[in-house]
Amino acid sequence: ARLLANDLGLDEGYLSRILAKFAKSGWLLRESDPKDRRKSILRLSETGQAQRKTYVDESRQKIEQTLSQSDTINRAQIVAAMVTIRNQLTNGNTEVLLRDLRPGDSGWLIQQHAEIYQREQGFDEGFEALVAEILTGYIRNRNPAKERAFIAERDGARLGSVFCTRQSDEIAKLRLFLLVPQARGLGIGKRLLEACLGFARAQGYKRMVLWTAKELGAACALYERFGFKVTATENAREFGIDVVNLTYEIEL
Questions:
Q1: Which candidate, 69, 75, 166, 160, places its Cα nearest to that of 109?
Q2: Please, which residues have CB within 8 angstroms of residue 10's CB and are 6 or more apart in sequence?
Q3: What distance lies between CA 225 and its chain's CA centroid?
Q4: DSSP string, 101-157
Q5: DSSP label at residue 181
């Protein structure tokens, strides 16, 4: 109880009265600390857990009712303000999540690929069309048992992607590996590749292949650190520039 009072910033006498009411209602159990019989360990009973769930559900309903009265712009502003508060309290060190593809992600991926590769590599709109074709085929024909997208996200902001797609029963193909500039150097690319390779192994693929361009030096270096080997090269003119296409493979 003393630790609880310190954590919550409550007066010990006031907390004691609250706990006494909880115990009288059958919500609270007290057990002797096996390491120090002078202390008691507090935990919720099954009835207490049920009551806690009731309170949590009621709170969520009230929040939903409050937010439902606001228009979309106000809700977006509320979320943005909450993100700002959390970043200030955590120095921006919030967790990066890897999740599956959701509505709206495809448009973002097409835009980011088009803008980043045009700015950094000089690719023309043909590359944008290719990304759109890949995503359209994936969404329409995806086999959930054998294919998976990983979208890196922090505080609702997308940071990158990678796709594990099926080339054959035994061969997986890595596609659409992307990191936005502000996400580079943070280990997110490594996490995306680990997730993609892990999924491929779990689904029984024997090998994974990918296509990239030699000009994408940072990505090539990362692939090679993971054990990918170049199995084919080809000089070509694609997306408005001369490139050296590379095919990488790795045994799973």
A1: 160
A2: 4
A3: 23
A4: --TTHHHHHHHHHHHHHHHHH---HHHHHHHHHHHHHHHHH--TTT-EEEEEEETTE
A5: G
Q: What is the pLDDT of residues 71-101, one digit of tens each?
A: 666 666 776 677 667 666 655 556 889 999 9
Q: Are 152 and 188 spatial neighbours (Cβ–Cβ below 8 Å)?
A: yes
Q: What end-to-end distance do the CA atoms of the chain give, in Å?
A: 53
Query: What type of residue is 50?
Result: A
Kindly tell me the sign of the dihedral angle through the C-alpha atoms of 99, 184, 106, 73: positive
Decide if 32 contacts 43 (C-beta within 8 A): no
**Cα pseudo-dihedral 210, 149, 128, 224, rounded to 10:** -30
Other Cβ atoms closer than 10 A to 40: 13
- The token pair that represents 250 in the structure block: 């790795």
Burial track 53-65 (b if 16+ CB lie within 10 A, e otherwise): eeeeeeeeeeeee
Amino acid 55 reads Y
Q: What is the CA radius of gyration of the chain?
A: 26
How far apart are the C-alpha atoms of 93 and 158, rounded to whole Å?
15
C-alpha to C-alpha distance for 141 and 161, rounded to whole angstroms = 19
Higher pLDDT, 96 or 135: 135
- Give residue for tokens 């009411």: 21
Please say whether the beta carbons of 248 and 210 come within 8 A.
yes
Quick: pLDDT tens for 145-158: 899 999 999 888 99
